[in-house]
């Protein structure tokens, strides 16, 4: 029961590959090179947010990244 209660706090297993990130950016009609910038930025942070908490959903972070590029 305790495991079920804290499961949502656990970061996603594994990190995305560079190719996965580039494919995601390409699918969103952004340059693959921007995906590379995103990938190495978050890899440098240890796949943690700017505040230090583990990044549980890299696609959510990527969509925010893309939104910031447009606005």
Commentary on this structure:
This protein has about 70 residues and is an all-alpha fold. About 60% of the residues lie in helices and about 0% in strands. The chain contains 4 helices and no strands. Helix 2 crosses helix 3. The chain is globular, with a radius of gyration of 13 Å. The N and C termini lie far apart (about 45 Å). The model is unreliable at about 5-10 (pLDDT under 50).
Give the averaged pLDDT, no decimals. 87
H/E series, N to C?
A: HHHH
Class based on secondary structure composition and strand pairing: mainly alpha
Give the total of beta strands: 0
Number of helices: 4
- What share of the residues does DSSP label as strand, in percent? under 5%
Tertiary shape:
globular
Please compute the radius of gyration using only Cα atoms: 13 Å
Question: What separation lies between the terminal Cα atoms?
Answer: 43 Å
Helix content: 55-70%
Major sheet size, sense and barrel closure: none
Query: Poorly predicted ranges (pLDDT <50, ≥5 residues)?
Result: 5-11
In brief, what are we looking at here?
The chain is an all-alpha fold.
Q: What's the structural blueprint in terms of helices and strands?
A:
Elements: H1 2-6, H2 18-27, H3 32-44, H4 58-70
Supply the key terms:
71 residues, mainly alpha, 4 helices
